[in-house]
Amino acid sequence: MNPARNRLDQLIDEGLASYANAAPRWGLETRVLRNVLGKDSAAYRFPRWAWAIPALVIGFALGIAVAPPIRTMFSAALNPSLIGEWCARLEASSLSTRIRESELFWWYIEGGHLMALAVMLGPALMLDLRLIGVLWTGDPVSKVEKRFLPITITGFGVVVATGLLLFISEPVKCYESPYFRIKMCLILIAGLNALVFHSTIDRRRDEWNTTLPTPRSARVAGVLGLLIWTAVIFAGRYMAYTFS
């Protein structure tokens, strides 16, 4: 093991001895790495190959648009009547019926979905506001990202799980709702916006971590995040008015 790292760990442990508990370790270690060694601790970053995901999606869409055989196969696979039939079969399944007719379970899922949505969007919007330069301007972007990104990812996981169960409970109504389709498209666009940001400008964060204003591409990503997720909330709310 690196002797310098061993010495650093020893210094951190000695410094923590003056505290009543070990809770300040993360903050102390971060300050030591930044002030003594001149570098920041590891941050949450998407891998370098993450840009390939939106590129593949765009390439696939272009392939469908320009290649007649692929377009024909894709149109057949996404035939509205076939999708509607599949949704009807899913709604007739025992799992869908049990969720839909449950006296309490459905409400727990709905409540958990809304709470997880708040847990996910609150921190995500805080990061967007930091990128725009509205809030947390006294903190480096890396610090704000470390503070909020894990919460956002956790909330997103719960949102996906509960949202899938809600869809299973009423797939026909969801499929027939135009706001559901709009919501799904907006979520896809929001995901692409996040992937592009974390795989491009965010990889060079050390160059603009504490500068104000942030680079234009970072501000654009922040504004898009705010607008898209706000539209997702409105689309999800209006879905209720299409359900009878």
SSE pattern, N- to C-terminal = HHHHHHHHHHH
Write down the overall mean pLDDT: 78
Report the radius of gyration as a whole number of Å: 23 Å
Assembly type of the chains comes to single chain
Biggest sheet layout: none
**First-to-last CA distance:** 65 Å
The tally of strands reads: 0
Stretches where pLDDT falls below 50 for ≥5 residues?
20-26
The structural domain count equals 1
Sheet/helix structural class: mainly alpha
Strand content: under 5%
Shape: elongated
Q: What helical percentage do the residues reach?
A: over 70%
Per DSSP, the total helix count is: 11
Tell me about this structure.
There is one protein chain. The protein is built from 11 helices and no strands. With 244 residues, it is mainly alpha-helical. The termini are far apart.
Quick structural gist:
The protein has 244 residues and is mainly alpha-helical.
What is the secondary structure topology, with strand pairs?
Blueprint: H1 3-16, H2 25-35, H3 52-66, H4 68-77, H5 80-91, H6 94-101, H7 105-132, H8 141-169, H9 171-176, H10 178-199, H11 216-242
Helix pairs in contact: 1-2, 3-4, 6-8, 7-8, 7-11, 10-11
